[in-house]
């Protein structure tokens, strides 16, 4: 081995250590609620609105994929309404969602067709609609029971 080769071999570990550099801390910005509309839920038996919510509307591919991920909480009088282009069986999951939710599946006539209650944070299990839906409303877990919502109740919303 020549002196030149020896020096090159000796310098490689120092070069690699120097290139490693400092670790950079990545800060994740908290996503905050942005009111984009108001939603009323109407009870089928009384035809009166029993629940009023401020809503965010998820109607783009990015918003639908992201949903309420990376947020730490949501106030009781708020929700996220997912609006799809078509009516189909839906399936959601709780990946990167930090707090429990109730999911309300709604058909094209804005009638509630099914629920998934108390979805667990970070759970990647499928939460199927069990019926065809055009809309999905995510609210805090327990609110479906608190508000005594039932299949057949309806909703209206404004943007």
TrEMBL record:
Gene3D superfamilies: Protein of unknown function DUF192 (2.60.120.1140). InterPro entries: DUF192, Saro_0823-like_sf. It comes from the Bacteria. This is DUF192 domain-containing protein.
């Amino acid at each position: 081995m020549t002196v030149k080769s020896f020096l090159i071999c000796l310098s490689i570990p120092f070069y690699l250590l120097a290139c490693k550099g400092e670790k950079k801390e990545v800060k994740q910005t908290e996503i905050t609620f942005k009111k984009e509309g108001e939603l009323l839920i109407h009870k089928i038996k009384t035809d009166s609105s029993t629940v009023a919510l401020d809503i965010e509307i998820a109607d783009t591919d990015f918003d639908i994929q992201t949903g309420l991920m990376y947020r730490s909480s949501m106030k009781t009088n708020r929700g996220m309404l997912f609006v799809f282009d078509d009516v189909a069986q839906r399936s959601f999951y709780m990946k990167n969602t930090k707090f429990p939710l109730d999911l309300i599946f709604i058909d094209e006539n804005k009638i509630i067709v099914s629920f998934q209650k108390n979805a667990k944070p970070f759970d990647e299990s499928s939460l199927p609609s069990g019926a065809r839906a055009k809309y999905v409303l995510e609210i805090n877990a327990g609110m479906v029971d608190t508000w005594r919502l039932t299949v057949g109740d309806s909703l209206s919303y404004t943007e």
